Amino acid sequence: MKKNIIIFLLVILQYGLASCTKVEEKPSNPIQSEIIKNKNSPFYIDFSNYPTKNKKLPIGIFDSGTGGLTVLDAIINSDNFNNKSHEQENNGDSQIDFLNESFIYLGDKANMPYGEYSGNDKTDLLKEHIIKDVQFLLDNKYYSSQNEQDFETDKSPVKAIVIACNTATAYGKNDVEKFIADAGLDLKVIGVIGAGVRGALEGIKKDESATVGIMATAGTVASNGYPNTVTEQKNKLNYSGSIITFQQAGIGLAAAIDGEKDYLDKFLTAISTTYRGPSFTNTNALIDKNILNRYNFDFSNNQILFSGSRNKLIEIQLNSIENYIKCHVISLLEKIRTSDSKTKLKSVILGCTHYPFFVTEFNNVFAFAYNYKENNKFVYRDFMEEEISLIDPAINTAKELYTYLDENSLFNKGNIDESQFYISVPNLENKRNELKDEKNFTYKYKYGRNQGEIQEYVKRVPFSEKTLTPELLERLESQIPLTYKLIDGYLKK
């Protein structure tokens, strides 16, 4: 009798352990299953006939908004190789490296900024958006306009993918690579983080000690993607010096650059109740009243909105891109100044694709800080080099892409003018969507959704004068003229 009881208990225990193991198994990504298996889904792709390693296909690039256009611009302007020998050369061969390649660009503007998802405990939802971005690049479908109910099916798939977004790289690159492998595809995925770190290390001697600053979105900072990659690459490349990293979350900066009204509204003349950027009271992005002069904010033309008086400020809100940059650069320098670090800041990785639009403004703030005095003493000079190298990860991304195409014989003989540009807009047919206006979800809804609620939140539509603001087009024309020329040609087709 005792023997039977013992056997019974052992069986129960074994069954219980097996059940526990089963419970702990991680469920598959719902959107990935939808794309690969559900033939009735709008996201389904039949990968059995995908034209893998077809050199005539375009290169896919995606970002959370229009900031990734700086990555595209770095790629199409790059001249690092001899196009006949494919050897890397210091001065290239006076012919751009990707002249005969075309590109398909997607900016997921309706769901941006991606940097906010981690702070709202929605990284799973962010990963779903990222997989949907990749699905779009691999698929042939798009909508001709926001109001069009039926999709077109003449978009080309792609032969390689560049994740032109630091946050998407940090949180989603591994998921994207797994998705592509599960779909049975042999397709290169390049992210900007590794490229940015390699660019920063190139300016540091192997035995030198230095501080590297990282300015990125809150999501990228929270991921620790850059510091971890600095450590990994430093060890891999046998750097013997001490390389210290300091991060600064540029809360609101990317959104302000893309014209998100919760962060910047040029028509405002007074404090906004929906503002989410740095202020005296935003604990996630605090402006320190005690060092207000160090920020050197520009109060003219409502670039700072405030309550109280200029002599006795109660609250302030940033209302210009330049003031956002001043706020975050000084915040980074304050972290270094108040630390125990003995090494000087030598380089800063612009770890958000929106930031390279404003290299001049970043340089101006660092120059101001280097020369800034209080009580006849320099405040920051002991903690920073006079010349700070601003690292644009897109430069090394272009090199990595070129090398991949070369090693896999994927260079095309096409025309860069055939490049296409798409952007996401809210799907007005989806009645569950909660909208601020026809171009924007409400903040609460955007970050209140859950992963696995499979639906078409957005439509991907071609760039047009309806989806791009005049201010954005003007900035693109002045700051990235070659990319603007491609966009302008696309708009006129």
Describe the protein's architecture and organization.
This protein has a domain at 30-193 and 395-491: 3-Layer(aba) Sandwich (Rossmann fold). Helices cover 36% and strands 16% of the residues. The chain is of the alpha/beta class and 493 residues long. The longest helix has 23 residues, at 2-24. It contains 16 helices and 16 strands. Strand 10 and strand 11 (377-378) form a beta hairpin. The chain has helices at residues 2-24, 30-37, 69-77, 123-138, 166-182, 192-201, 218-223, 225-236, 253-257, 292-295, 321-337, 359-371, 394-407, 443-446, 470-479, 481-491; strands at residues 59-63, 103-107, 160-163, 188-191, 210-216, 243-249, 304-309, 312-318, 345-351, 373-374, 377-378, 384-391, 420-426, 435-437, 440-441, 458-462. The strands form five sheets. The protein has a six-stranded mixed sheet, sandwiched between helices. A four-stranded parallel sheet has the order 6-5-9-12, with helices on both faces.
Proportion of residues in β-strands:
15-25%
How many E-type strands?
16
Output the CATH topology of the domain at 30-193 and 395-491: Rossmann fold
Uncertain segments: 5-27
Topology of this structure?
Elements: H1 2-24, H2 30-37, E1 59-63, H3 69-77, E2 103-107, H4 123-138, E3 160-163, H5 166-182, E4 188-191, H6 192-201, E5 210-216, H7 218-223, H8 225-236, E6 243-249, H9 253-257, H10 292-295, E7 304-309, E8 312-318, H11 321-337, E9 345-351, H12 359-371, E10 373-374, E11 377-378, E12 384-391, H13 394-407, E13 420-426, E14 435-437, E15 440-441, H14 443-446, E16 458-462, H15 470-479, H16 481-491
Parallel strand pairs: 1-2, 1-3, 2-13, 3-4, 5-6, 5-9, 9-12
Antiparallel strand pairs: 7-8, 10-11, 13-16, 14-15
Helix pairs in contact: 2-4, 3-13, 4-5, 6-8, 6-13, 11-12, 15-16
